[in-house]
Amino acid sequence: YDGDTAYATIQLKVRLRTLDCWCPEVRGVQKPEGLKSKKRAQELVPPGSKVRIFIPTTGRLQDSLTFGRPLAHLWIKQDDGSFLNVGETLVSEGFATKEKVRK
């Protein structure tokens, strides 16, 4: 486009960590509830779905990553053209909490 702007098509497969959404783990004592949360997430975002993500930044890369995963908000397009926030939906349906619950 000009000297400091370029067009690029980037296709990456990465593991994202959904912000503001804490689901039970799929191992250990949380496994039964974790598998229910995982199943619901897969229903909301079937494999191969195209999604919209937003990775907030603070100017420090380490603030945008956890365990090598980008921290992001995740939306999936609905049949009516609107976008559903996946993390908010999992929280509102009881499959996750907005903050991490320590046990």
Distance between the termini: 52 Å
Order of helices and strands: EHEEEEH
Overall residue-averaged pLDDT value: 87
Q: How many helices does DSSP assign?
A: 2
Percentage of residues in DSSP E strands: 15-25%
Overall body shape = globular
Major sheet attributes = 5 strands, mixed
Percent helix, as a range, is 10-25%
Task: Provide the structure class.
Answer: alpha+beta
Counting DSSP E segments of at least 2 residues, the number of strands comes to 5
Q: What radius of gyration results from the CA coordinates?
A: 16 Å
Unreliable stretches: none
Offer a concise description of the structure.
The protein has helices at 31-44, 86-92, and strands at residues 17-18, 51-54, 65-66, 69-77, 83-85. The protein is α+β, with helices and mostly antiparallel strands.
List the defining traits of the structure above.
globular, 2 helices, alpha+beta, 20% helix, 5 strands, 103 residues, 5-stranded mixed sheet
